[in-house]
Amino acid sequence: MAPDAYVRFLKPTVQGSRAQGSPEVSVFPSARILRISCSSAVRDLETGTAEWLTISVVGHEGEHQVGLFRRRFEAAAPKIHVDILEDHALLRESLASWLEANAATVKVVGRFSSWAELAASLGQLSDVVLLDIILGDRIPLRSKIHAILSTGSQVVVCSSLATPLVIRQAFDAGALAYIPKTAGAEVLTTAVLAAARGEKFVLAELEGVFDGPGPRIRLTPREHEAVTLYLGGSGGTMADVGANLGISADGVKKLLVSVRRKAHTGPEPLSRPALRELLIADGWLLPDR
């Protein structure tokens, strides 16, 4: 480095993982500089406590080493990006406002009112997806969670439904938390932050759902898809179900016969409404809103 060269130190600002320079704070002739060091420390990003970046410059004054510059800069904590799928607009916006106001590291990016809207953005989902499950569609909860997880995002379920077998199904599918809508908003914040770290969060009052018996009816994933399309929401015809699954109506009929056989316990044939009620009680179908 030429003797007359100068080294300029700029005050860094950090957003996420990127640092940028802003107005300079010191200028030193490079001939005086012996050593430059830079270190950083993270205290607690979860609570919004910032990252600290320390720059030190050691130079010489004649034959002696001297500290020319030492400055500690506060850097913004990296943001956790969150998407919300909730079909009630008021609740969706309330959740977004609460999260951003009470968790300094959270930024709500996506706001979706239906599964179809979210599915159209599967390749662009955020770190954590907050998922309502009673949306009036005919997509199994397990399939929704698997689809989100396949993108690398984590799932926190937030629902008014607190059926033990549905909660268990959500965790079995890979959700990291299940928060009833009756819980406090601060609980939801804790669950989102835990999910961003890849950690499971289970409310104390929900721990018992893992101790009880599983569903009486044991369905394969394909049977679950077929019966959800056939009986979920306003229901569908065998032709509709076949078109969705890419199989024939006869293939759908075989799947539904298998479901009926597994669900049947009495001498009388199961009617369509009776089968639906049994599957709701067993957590395979979601009740109407």
Question: How would you describe this protein?
Answer:
α6 crosses α7. The protein has helices at 89-102, 115-119, 141-149, 164-173, 185-196, 221-231, 238-245, 249-263, 272-281; strands at residues 6-15, 18-29, 33-42, 51-61, 64-75, 80-85, 106-112, 128-131, 154-159, 177-180. Helices cover 33% and strands 28% of the residues. A hairpin with a 2-residue loop joins β1 and β2. The chain folds into three domains: 6-75, no CATH class; 80-210, Rossmann fold; 221-281. The strands form three sheets. A five-stranded parallel β-sheet has the order 7-6-8-9-10, sandwiched between helices. It has nine helices and ten strands. It is of the alpha/beta class.
CATH H-level name of the largest domain... which superfamily? Response regulator
Q: How many domains would you count in the coordinates?
A: 3
Report the helical percentage.
Answer: 25-40%
The CATH first-level class of the largest domain comes to Alpha Beta
Number of strands: 10
Weakly predicted, low-confidence segments: 1-25, 43-50
CATH architecture verdict of the largest domain: 3-Layer(aba) Sandwich
Q: Main β-sheet: number of strands, strand sense, barrel status? A: 5 strands, parallel
Shape estimate: elongated
